[in-house]
Design a protein that fits this description.
InterPro entries: Erg6_SMT_methyltransf, Methyltransf_11, MeTrfase_SMT, SAM-dependent_MTases_sf, Sterol_MeTrfase_C. The chain is of the alpha/beta class and 346 residues long. It contains 12 helices and 7 strands. The protein starts with 5 loop residues before the first helix and ends in a 7-residue tail after the last strand. The structure holds S-adenosylmethionine (SAM).
Length: 346
């Protein structure tokens, strides 16, 4: 079961960071970002520290608001958010052509929501790679509860230097995770190396779209809000990801920004004008309640000092994401399917 209560939120806040150090971790995290004078080079050079601090601080909020899967979804009318999230995962499995018994790698697996769903949907064995220890601990607990702990496991490592031999996986996927890489080519090259020849890599990437104008100050502000609110060193445009895939050696089978054809906008759950009882905690009213609840929990000492500051940068993320989505300058679902050729000459 996902930890969804207010006390779970308070007790998980800070992840592996000592509770007395949460406030200083928040301050250090904020300083990496443009809003606090931080620079892109510094975020890239210190990506592991920056991203790990972010997930130690934000994971219990994610679990409280989203559940076990930390991603958006392409969504049809009449479909609940949870249904659309599962269908988004099934779509990925279908595109990869997963077969029972295959060995699959989930790059940047969070607490393993997608891993549990995809492994049960396709009867595959999935390894979740994640650099965040707290998330892995949660993932192991949840795998045990649903009974996939014999077929699926977690490895704590950086996806820029994976501890796996060449040609070890039948398929690799990444859901809204490789956007944290300081450089896409370095990350995709590692994925290429560990994937067996002839096999596929599929991903949902966070990207700026072709409508993003790097000289437009409003666009720059929205991009910076998404970066601070989501632990990102920089957000690449879609074309840069395709170039990086090709440079790493992949043949790109197809790619598409699925946000462009989503009948229900992916950012709707966070939009201030939207209200939903089934995803209440994500709505503006729900976030307002959470904000006040965290304030009280911090005041009475149940949540560590600095908790409200985490909620503040997550609120910035929500605002940046909704604006970026509305203006169609940002997408969290640039999908691609790429194949590692059978031989080097192919
Ligand atoms: C937005 S979450 C998505 C998690 C998961 N794919 C899901 O959809 O639930 C991004 C994940 O990428 C992981 N991550 C970020 N940078 C990483 C790195 N350098 N190496 C391994 N994992 C990383 C984070 O720890 C986090 O689990």
């Amino acid at each position: 079961m996902s930890k969804a209560g207010a006390l779970d939120l308070a007790s998980g806040l800070g992840g592996k960071i000592d509770k007395t150090d949460v406030l200083s971790a928040v301050e250090q995290y904020e300083k990496y970002h443009i809003y606090y004078g931080g620079a892109e080079d510094e975020r890239k050079a210190n990506y592991a520290d920056m991203v790990n601090k972010y997930y130690d601080l934000a994971t219990s909020f994610y679990e409280f608001g989203w559940g076990e899967s930390f991603h958006f979804a392409h969504r049809f009318k009449g479909e609940s958010l949870r249904e659309s999230i599962k269908r988004h995962q099934h779509f990925l499995a279908l595109q990869l052509g997963l077969k029972p018994e295959q060995k699959v790698l989930d790059v940047g697996c969070g607490i393993g929501g997608p891993l549990r769903e995809i492994s049960r949907f396709s009867l595959t064995s999935i390894t979740g790679l994640n650099n965040n220890e707290y998330q892995i601990q949660r993932g192991k607990e949840l795998n045990h509860i649903v009974g996939v702990d014999k077929t699926c496991d977690f490895v704590k490592a950086d996806f820029m230097k994976m501890p796996f031999p060449d040609n070890s996986y039948d398929a690799v996927y990444a859901i809204e995770a490789t956007c944290h890489a300081p450089d896409a080519y370095g990350c995709y090259s590692e994925i290429f190396r560990v994937l067996k020849p002839g096999q596929y890599f599929a991903a949902y990437e966070w990207c700026m779209t072709d409508s993003y104008d790097p000289n437009n100050q409003e666009h720059q502000r929205i991009k910076a809000e998404i970066e601070i609110g989501d632990g990102l060193p920089d957000i690449r445009v879609t074309g840069q990801c395709i170039e990086a895939l090709k440079k790493a050696g992949f043949k790109v089978t197809w790619s598409k920004d699925l946000a462009a054809s989503s009948p229900v906008p992916w950012y709707l759950p966070l939009d201030k004008s939207h209200f939903s009882l089934s995803s209440f905690r994500l709505t503006a009213v729900g976030r307002f309640f959470t904000k006040n609840m965290v304030k009280v929990l911090e005041y009475v000492g149940l949540a560590p000092q600095g908790s409200q500051r985490v909620q503040d940068f997550l609120e910035k993320a929500a605002e940046g994401l909704v604006e970026g989505g509305r203006k169609e300058i940002f997408t969290p679902m640039f999908f691609f399917l790429a194949q590692k050729p059978h031989t080097e000459s192919q």
